[in-house]
Structure prediction request, 193 residues.
Amino acid sequence: AIDAQGRRLSALHAVRLDAQGDEVWSYARPSLRGLSVARGRQGDTLIVSNLPEASGETPAFELITLDADGKALGVERVEGLCAFATAVGLDGETIVVGRDASQSFVVSSYDARGEELWSNSLRDAYHTCSECKAVGTDAEGNVYVIGDAGLFGFAVGDDRIEGNGNSEVPSIFFLASFDRKGRGSWGRRFVLL
Prediction:
């Protein structure tokens, strides 16, 4: 990121702006790579930021909770997952989609202390999805993940998401649904022509 004076920022830097574009508050934390920001149910701000990985290290991210004034309420380190996208669940939990140390894609739910509430791998016995793009929730607490199904596909609930089989075929995208406890409900595939 670059600040208003053209200086390169080497830290996670979150800024809340009002409707006129004026800064309300800012928050900085050194040596992190900002990933995603979500608005919590009580006006708080949730930030997921991956920690730099050295070769062979277990992936990890920080779950940062800021109050309505931009003050840190908590910073929790979560081991074992490199995060790609985040959303806020029905009860205020943080839903994160990422890749674990075995290179499997995972959708997980965490409380404010960074404790895992549930986790579900987007993989079957031999294959995993290629890339998760986004995660969201609905009014009933269901979780939806969209991404690229990869070459071989994977299973969600009773549905099998078939991949593209080879790189000559157009991309196959998926939409997968999980209930509020993380159980796979259904999955659909879409061919991008």
About this structure: The longest strand covers residues 23-30. DSSP finds no helices and 16 strands in the chain.
